[in-house]
């Protein structure tokens, strides 16, 4: 099993430490959701795992530590902000996910695979459209398809549903969870919607103050006491008729 082990991870920007000695474990075959208040270091945590910023500590797959310079070969990272102008078509952007394996010509099967991913997200009809012509939510779906198309061992997604409507939130999270199951991938997504996180996560990692304060199944992590301690809110945690946890914030703590 391609288990991701994170030990004593410390990272920041310049003299400012954002993540301080965080340790966690993420198993393959499902979605691990990273939660925590604004400014607690979720994006920094993901960037440090991906090797995009300087960090200390250990990042290991199957017990073997991955040096920072080699993580781009095994880790696919989609940032929170996928903005930017490009005249490339949607299909071309997805194909760039396999840039390392592309030569002077594109093998015939790759566009077919890329289009299948676009269809999975309901945007196959946009394959020939310029990226510049898309809405923010559509761009997010394109770059998510690109991240999956890379076929990594570890998939890191920073708020992948932030710009999406309700239907596409469900489409995306189902697709990511299914992809992780089918490919045995470690998938970690930072999210703010705790009810949605509880519905899709096999495990939740909770960050607060730059370190991991809890991890495990949603029912163990998302308690009223922890929401009070971490988010500073009084909240109701209950089971829906479908069996999922539903988190309703009631009021800020005094």
UniProtKB/TrEMBL annotation:
GO molecular function list: ATP binding; ATP hydrolysis activity
Organism annotation: Hwanghaeella grinnelliae
Superkingdom field: Bacteria
Sorted UniProt keywords: ATP-binding, Nucleotide-binding
CDD domains noted in UniProt: ABC_Iron-Siderophores_B12_Hemin (cd03214)
The keyword Lipoprotein is annotated on this UniProt entry: no
InterPro entries attached to this UniProt entry: AAA+_ATPase, ABC_transporter-like_ATP-bd, ABC_transporter-like_CS, P-loop_NTPase
Protein name, as recorded: ABC transporter ATP-binding protein
ABC transporter domain sequence ranges: 4-234
Any Pfam family hit: ABC_tran
Gene3D superfamilies: P-loop containing nucleotide triphosphate hydrolases (3.40.50.300)
SMART domains: AAA
